[in-house]
Write a structure and sequence with these properties.
- It is globular, with a radius of gyration of 24 Å.
- The protein has 13 helices and 2 strands; from the N terminus they run H-E-E-H-H-H-H-H-H-H-H-H-H-H-H.
- The longest helix is centred in the first third of the chain and has 37 residues.
- The chain has a two-stranded antiparallel sheet with strand order 1-2.
- The protein starts with a helix and ends in a 13-residue tail after the last helix.
- It is mainly α.
- A hairpin with a 7-residue loop joins strand 1 and strand 2.
- 72% of the residues lie in helices and 1% in strands.
Length: 300
């Protein structure tokens, strides 16, 4: 009887988690294996896949300059945009870490860009703001810098894309704010008694105690940045211009898959992207032992 009751309890548990298991297998695991198979084939969506071995990867690494340009643009976007977003998020979180009665309202207002930041409407708005007659060029003209050809200069176009990424700092800001709330005020009071100034408190108390949260935000925002697609697609009208200046990896993958019907090549690109993100994540985890502080491990 007891054995029957235990089996019934286990089956009940499996029944409750079965929707997730079925969904994971049907919509994640199986498509991943199908994509892995297609990465070794020539497949144009209209005919049966033809096995070609490593030809997609050879073309990618040795015969496609546009691919390497998309890698370069994406790495610039990630390595510039992610640190700027985290710095800005931490700065705003420290400002909001006060006892003001309006803090709740400020948090909501600052978080809104993260909710709507990746939408088509916001990307279109960003295009209008940075257009030749937009607000940004108007302000630059007033201060004497002159209008910038945001859609004619590939470097300026990438800066425009990065600025949109930085604007979406709300989620990181809320996580930083939660971490700041967990730092005991007594530590700052003790530091003040010892004569520490605000800068010293920030580098000796705030940053070390926030380092696990910084690691989490850094990993999550890095992964998110590699997957950025909608802003680049809308701002460049799907072309990645000017002169492939906004041709992010995900956008080039999309063009290969659904504009040029090179689904096999796009699948190979997707797996290389997965390996790149996995490698960067592993590097962050391995190096975290040198700069992430855990109280319960004595700083190690």
């Amino acid at each position: 009887m007891r054995r029957y009751s235990s089996l019934r309890s286990e089956l009940t548990g499996y029944a409750f988690i079965s929707p997730f298991i079925i969904g994971f297998i049907a919509f994640t695991l199986i498509p991943m294996f199908v994509s892995l198979y297609m990465s070794f084939t020539s497949y144009n969506l209209f005919t049966a896949p033809e096995w070609i071995g490593l030809e997609n990867f050879k073309k990618m690494f040795f015969g496609d300059p546009k691919y390497w340009n998309s890698v370069r643009v994406t790495l610039l976007y990630v390595f510039i945009g992610v640190p700027l977003r985290l710095v800005f998020a931490l700065f705003v979180a420290m400002i909001l870490n006060t006892g003001s009665r309006m803090v709740g309202t400020y948090r909501t207002l600052y978080y809104l860009p993260s909710i709507i930041g990746g939408s088509v409407a916001v990307s279109i708005m960003w295009r209008n703001i940075f257009s030749n007659e937009g607000v940004i060029n108007h302000v630059l003209t007033i201060i004497g810098i002159g209008p910038v050809s945001w859609f004619g200069d590939p470097d300026a176009a990438l800066v425009m894309l990065i600025s949109l990424s930085v604007w979406q700092f709300g989620s990181s800001m809320l996580i930083f704010l939660a971490g700041l709330k967990n730092i005991s005020p007594e530590m700052y009071e003790a530091a003040s008694v010892d004569g520490a100034n605000p800068v010293r408190k920030f580098f000796r108390i705030t940053l070390p105690l926030l380092s696990p949260i910084i690691l989490f935000n850094l990993i999550m925002q890095t992964i998110s940045a590699f997957m950025t697609f909608v802003p680049a697609y809308i701002i460049s009208k799907g072309e990645g211009g000017p002169m492939d200046g906004t041709m992010l990896y995900s956008l080039y993958l999309f063009r290969q898959a659904f504009m040029f019907n090179n689904m096999g090549y796009a699948s190979a690109m997707a797996w290389v992207m997965l390996l790149i993100v996995s490698l960067l994540t592993a590097v962050l985890f391995l190096t975290s032992r040198f700069w992430v502080f855990y109280e319960n491990e004595g700083g190690k």
